[in-house]
UniProtKB/TrEMBL annotation:
Pfam families named among the record's database cross-references: Radical_SAM
SMART domains referenced in this protein's UniProt entry, alphabetically: Elp3
Role: Probably acts as a heme chaperone, transferring heme to an unknown acceptor. Binds one molecule of heme per monomer, possibly covalently. Binds 1 [4Fe-4S] cluster. The cluster is coordinated with 3 cysteines and an exchangeable S-adenosyl-L-methionine.
InterPro entries on file: Aldolase_TIM, Coproporphyrinogen-III_oxidase, Elp3/MiaA/NifB-like_rSAM, HemW-like, rSAM, rSAM_sf
Primary location: cytoplasm
GO MF entry, a single one: coproporphyrinogen oxidase activity
A Gene Ontology biological process term: porphyrin-containing compound biosynthetic process
UniProt keyword terms in alphabetical order: 4Fe-4S, Chaperone, Cytoplasm, Heme, Iron, Iron-sulfur, Metal-binding, S-adenosyl-L-methionine
Subcellular location: Cytoplasm
This protein's name: Heme chaperone HemW
Domain Radical SAM core: 22-259
GO CC entries: cytoplasm
Gene3D superfamilies to which the protein is assigned, alphabetical: Aldolase class I (3.20.20.70)
Amino acid sequence: MPGALPDGEAVPRDGSLPPGTSLGGRGFGVYVHVPFCASRCGYCDFNTYTAAELGGGTSGEAYVDAVLAELALAERAVTPARVDTVFVGGGTPTLLHPDDLARILEAIDRTWGLAADAEVTTEANPESVTPASLQRLRKAGFTRVSLGMQSIAPGVLKLLERRHTAGRAPVAATEAREAGFDHVNLDLIYGTPGETADDFAASLAAAVGAGVDHVSAYALIVEDGTRLAARMRRGDLPYPDDDVAADRYLAADAALGAAGLSWYEVSNWAAGPSARCRHNILYWTGGDWWGLGPGAHSHVGGVRWWNVKHPSAYAARLAAGESPGHAREVLSADDRHVEDVMLRLRLASGLPLAVLDGPGCAAAARAEADGLLEIRDGLAVLTLRGRLLADAVVRDLLP
Ligand SMILES: C[S@@+](CC[C@H](N)C(=O)[O-])C[C@H]1O[C@@H](n2cnc3c(N)ncnc32)[C@H](O)[C@@H]1O
Ligand code: SF4
């Protein structure tokens, strides 16, 4: 089950923001969390629930009604010029009927107005889309699909407890392109116990072969409380190996680079600037976004808040006319600095040295001498070796 939420100051019942909070002007996004999955994968600790866990499930229509109620409350709290990006994530958004997803998108457009060139992404599980559902989503205004492929190797998919067959993800990506999606992402996970170098090479080749313009590749994280963590604790499976993970990362960068996809964030590769995920870039560069749905996080002008996690608690708050916000915090200048360094150093566009203090600049010079950073035009950019050690480099740059 998903872990507990952090505490913070209370969110007012009407969901209003602290007086004086204003949008930062770096773009406005909307995140929609769909907390439903057909089954829980053994490694996943996201805020998501199966029908059995919800006591027989919940109707898509009731969920959308609750999201629309939160949107009405959000409309009173913020007035962005327009919505630049929408990202529907999960859970499994495509467990909802495409008409339900379309209803959410229409409501966002009616409320704040979607920019003419808005990026509108939905995550999707490979087995939960069809050519017809993808066509309906494209027609509704979705512009991008992000599919959880994880691996092409049947043994790895089985260990991860995925529901789809090995070949399904690349086929779904092709179906998405045929339905008119110019922007399609495949998520890969590397470093699963038992995965061989050949397995991962085959996963990369299959992703590239599907003609997608974006790939995300994540090292397997063993999250507390998951079935995977329990199997490792019992000694039934070995823990992931850092050296193997580093080898896989280098293999990903080489294969994706050879296919014309270059890194723009440590775990993300795209076929040129227009293929980059603008919604995630907004997160990484201090933009504002409203997160709708159970457990969704939001950030507006230095105020961060998060909703109650359980779908029933979320629906109950909104049925009572109250904000689903569980708690919030106002970021201090120090908090913002730490976040800025952490997120922007992971980007290929680099971290301006001007944001670092004296000791931070000295640490950057040392990292450059060690071959971990490249410094040019006042920007610090991770080298390939630096990307393998990104967390350690960030730690050295911070007070
Ligand atoms: C929350 S999932 C939603 C996508 C969709 N439900 C799916 O699984 O196909 C988004 C992505 O997070 C990544 N992910 C989730 N848990 C992870 C973990 N423990 N370690 C590494 N990556 C993880 C997976 O690549 C997954 O595709
Ligand atoms: S389908 Fe995606 S969100 Fe659902 S449990 Fe699996 S990884 Fe997590």
